[in-house]
Write a structure and sequence with these properties.
Strand content: 25-35%
Largest sheet: 8 strands, parallel, barrel
Number of helices: 11
Structural class: alpha/beta
CATH class of the largest domain: Alpha Beta
């Protein structure tokens, strides 16, 4: 009877998700989401039958460079009585960091730190934060008691270290996302959820629906796929994509949320506890196969959920404002050029999203700017893919400005996001706007363009005008 109940819960989850996809909101058509590449971490519980140092070596062999350590793992084969936890002394911490550095790995999070390990007093909780600071750990994963939250709210501000509230399955207090959300309401944004997709399934909770409920407050993800919903000896972890978690839609939802943390892999199948690598590798290949931006470089980078203009410079009047949480650029004044100065690009595929504040808004994407801009002369020696909805012909959105008109008008109304895909190989330029090819041209000097280089910088124009233009998700793939 219990097994039938969980099978029914799983079916209800799928039906509910189908209704969400087909009815409530167009932006939740997950099949159209361009899934970003998330950083991967290994939860060391995957290697619970091994020492922490062995877990480092095995994680490195999988090509994963981040770790989530848990308290209580034997430290090393030759140190059976020493455990990785927040009681390590300074000499031991130094040795651990040397081992990590030699392997090129980093411990970015720590948990699950249980109530007995965390303690109930500010002094005991502060000890965990002090350890995290010494180790360079960004996130502590735990399951707090109600009385802990005032202390945690104080310490996350003092240490700038996150707290992620983890959900073990029922009868755990935080088994359901509603409980987590209620517990963290009104607290500092550095206190959020550790979303364990497998444990939600064991409770009968649809992972995608749970992620939607916790949108904006997810700090860590314990990433799992199970062969079924419910609890029992036949419900086990399986490679990503082979179970019922709906891994594609989980990653699509996290992409829509602009999730900035890691996918922390935790493989708990007891039958494979000594050799989890084949299943993990198979799952990693599936993730790679559904990640749209797998082979791209992100030009406006996010560092653990915070975007920065690092690597970008600005020439001329005006500027671009950056929302560090969302990664959205907003043009201000002008006319100037915001250009990526790290390197020049030769043949490439550039993709980005843009939207206009009003239909009169004016901007453009510059390709192969030949030298560091020191005057407006660059406009005569590089190509601009135009953004200007009220213009026509060679000046309309999608045009190569002053040279070639778009073959179709496919830009969306002001206030809606557009997706632009630009391919530049040799002298051949193709532009797709919202999935329709509008430019297919062998470049030549024309109009304002006197000549062009074989390689150059990428730039975004800010322009005088009545309304800003917004940009986000700027990715490039060298060809």
């Amino acid at each position: 009877m219990k097994k039938m109940m969980f099978m029914l819960l799983g079916l209800i989850c799928l039906v509910t998700l189908s209704e969400l996809l087909n009815g409530q909101a167009a932006e939740e058509n997950y099949g159209e989401v361009r899934i970003i590449k998330f950083p991967l971490a290994m939860q060391c519980w995957t290697y619970r039958k091994y020492t922490f140092y062995e877990a480092i070596d095995k994680t490195k062999a999988l090509g994963i460079k981040y770790l989530q350590a848990y308290p209580g793992q034997v430290l090393a084969p030759d140190q059976k009585n020493v455990f990785f936890d927040h009681k390590l002394n300074d000499d031991q911490i130094r040795s651990v960091k040397e081992k990590l550095a030699a392997a090129g790995l980093e411990v970015t999070s720590y948990g699950v730190v249980g109530p007995a390990e965390m303690g109930r007093t500010e002094e005991s909780i502060r000890r965990v934060f002090n350890f995290a600071r010494k180790m360079g750990i960004r996130t502590i994963v735990t399951e707090p008691a109600d009385g802990d939250f005032p202390i945690l709210d104080k310490l996350v501000k003092e240490y700038d270290i996150n707290i992620a509230v983890h959900n073990h399955p029922e009868p755990s207090k935080y088994a359901k996302p509603e409980t987590v959300l209620a517990a963290i309401k009104g607290l500092d944004e550095r206190i959020g959820a550790c979303a364990d997709t497998g444990h939600w399934m064991r409770t009968g909770v649809c992972p995608v629906d749970a992620l939607k409920l916790l949108s904006g407050r997810i700090i860590d993800v314990h990433f799992k796929d199970l062969n079924d919903f419910g609890r029992g000896e036949n419900v086990v972890d399986v490679p990503f994509g082979e179970g019922k978690a709906n891994i594609h839609d989980i990653l699509a939802e996290l992409t829509l949320q602009n999730y900035g943390g890691t996918l922390t892999i935790e493989y708990e199948n007891e039958a494979e506890v000594l050799t989890p690598e084949p299943a993990i590798r198979k799952g990693l290949e599936y993730i790679k196969s559904i990640t749209y931006y797998e082979d791209y470089q992100q030009l406006l980078k996010s560092n653990w959920g915070r975007y920065s203009k690092h690597g970008w410079n600005h020439y001329g009047p005006g500027h671009f404002e950056l929302d560090e949480k969302t990664g959205i650029l907003k043009s201000q004044g002008g006319m100037g050029l915001f250009w990526y100065s790290v390197k020049k690009f030769k043949d490439f595929l550039l993709e980005l999203d843009f939207k206009c504040g009003q239909k009169e808004a004016n901007s453009g994407i510059f390709l192969r700017v030949p030298e560091v801009p020191t005057s407006d002369d660059y406009v005569s020696h590089s190509f601009e893919v135009q953004i200007w909805d009220i213009a026509e012909g060679i000046h309309r959105t999608g045009a190569i400005y002053d040279a070639v008109a778009p073959t179709a008008s496919t830009s969306r109304p002001a206030g809606e996001w557009n997706h632009m895909k630009i391919t530049f190989q040799g002298k051949h330029i193709q532009v797709e706007l919202n999935g329709t090819q509008v430019i297919d041209w062998d470049a030549e000097p024309r109009g304002k363009i006197k000549d062009f280089a074989s390689e150059g910088y990428i730039g975004l124009q800010n322009h005088e005008g009545p309304a800003p233009v917004y940009f986000r998700n700027i990715y490039i793939k060298e060809l």
